[in-house]
Specification:
By secondary structure, this protein is mainly α. It is built from seven helices and four strands, in the order H-H-E-E-H-E-H-H-E-H-H. About 45% of the residues lie in helices and about 10% in strands. Strand 1 and strand 2 form a beta hairpin.
Length: about 170
């Protein structure tokens, strides 16, 4: 009878330890895991001092423009925009990743916009660049700097609304 009670106690203890271990892992995931970054939705349309290149214009230069494609616009009041158009890479040792880190340190942004919706990632277990390519590197820098990251990909609803305003036949689009 005593052996049975001791065995039950050991099993109970092991199950308790396993539960606590599982709970700690779940808690760690909730605290440290990256989640999908929110969408950046401007309050109003903004007139840019330099227009964004159209798809047709980009098609003409896609094979010849410099890489990375860098645009820097600065205001007199200290504000500005820095766009780093990287060649997509999942190699953490790519020279662009080092350059992005250097440019980040020089520009000192207050917000990060990335091309991608990103997703769930567990730091320490996964590499941001290997998981999300260069937007992962930017998001990691933003997290280290304590600044927000947004995707500049428009919400699907906005994309669809814009497409539906085009002269396409709706049944062809949907």
């Amino acid at each position: 009878m005593m052996k049975s009670k001791t065995l039950k106690n050991k099993i109970s203890k092991i199950l308790t330890y396993l539960f606590v271990f599982w709970l700690l892992i779940v808690l760690w995931g909730f605290i440290f895991a990256w989640r999908k970054v929110p969408e950046y939705i401007p309050v109003e349309n903004v007139d840019l001092p330099v227009s964004i290149m159209t798809s047709d214009g980009y098609a003409e230069v896609i094979n010849i423009h410099p890489r990375p494609y860098i645009v820097l616009l600065e205001n007199n009041d200290g504000g500005g925009v820095f766009v780093y158009g990287a060649e997509h890479t999942k190699n953490p040792n790519d020279s662009q990743i080092v350059d992005i880190q250097s440019q980040w340190a020089n520009f000192k942004p207050s917000i990060a916009l990335v091309e991608s919706r990103l997703g769930i990632m567990f730091p320490g277990l996964m590499n941001p660049v290997e998981t999300f390519s260069e937007p992962g590197a930017v998001h990691a820098l933003a997290r280290e700097s304590g600044i927000p990251t947004y995707t500049w990909e428009p919400p699907i609803e906005v994309e669809m609304a814009n497409l539906l305003r085009q002269p396409f036949l709706k049944n062809k689009l949907l």
